Amino acid sequence: MENNSTDHYRCHDIVDVESGKPLTSAVMFSAGVLGNIVALVLLEVRRRKSSASLYQILVTALLLTDLLGSVSVSPVVLSAYAQKKTLVGMSANKEMCSYFGFSMTFLSLSTLALLCAMALERYLSIGYPYFYEEHLSKRCTYITLLLIYISSIIFCIPPLLGFGAYVQYCPGTWCFLEMGHTDGTDKVYIGLYASFILLIISTTIVCNIYVICLLVMMHRRGKMRRCGRRSRSMTEELAHLLPLALITVFYICCTFPLVVRVYINLTGSNEECHAADLRALRFLSLHSIINPWVFIILRPSALKIIWRKLHKLQTSTSTGQSTEAAEN
């Protein structure tokens, strides 16, 4: 444990990049930027055909946030590899490390909050349609987005003032909140961060499970009606729910390891492992790359085609079984 602890502190202050694969970072950066741009273009094409819904506004905000993360963080990593200088070594007073840590924390929190807002929007839309139609508007959505970004920024400021800390992780191309070997205010702050993430993940999961169960019940009863004003097919609801559900699953897979590592380090029950902390951070960075490709692959037009083919396949199978039974 002593060697591990020594390695942990050594990584905080090294100025030369010791190892790593710049090609991996370059591929992740390209995939993230390309995916978000394509997804935003597809959303804009769809928006021109009809007025943007509240859900589409939230999706656009999520994709823009992911794109912001790709263009604001990944170039710093590539620059560190190119110069063979760590984030600490690239600035006199660790400003680059603080910028990177602030950006990573802000992006993780705002993305999480946006996913939760999307889940709540579906929850209210399907579960409480009258309230949704009467009280939720685009203005309310924009105010929600503003509050999400402002609150995320405010939460990320304390480490810059000494409450918590942004530190460098090996190989020197990453900076994030201090997750191990913490005490005092640092321990309180990282505990709040992990608890906040866990709370919103739980809220998102509960909302999505509720909506899925409600849609299944409504489909079985043949009553796919919303507010009594217009009917909506199962395909239209799935066009919103399926991407959100998949993104939530990916987010849990990408975020939960970080939460686990924080709690393990806080309890001190296991030997602190800097390599495991770094793996958790890398999982966290994958989410902004996965998001846009889910929306691209599962866009409404593609879902309709898949749904029709599955329906035709089911119909042909049923017809074939009926014909075979009649012949026998």
From TrEMBL:
It is a multi-pass membrane protein. The keyword Membrane applies. GO terms for molecular function: prostaglandin E receptor activity. It is found in: Cell membrane. GO terms for cellular component: plasma membrane. Keywords: Cell membrane, G-protein coupled receptor, Glycoprotein, Membrane, Receptor, Transducer, Transmembrane, Transmembrane helix. It holds the Pfam family 7tm_1. This is Prostaglandin E2 receptor EP2 subtype-like.
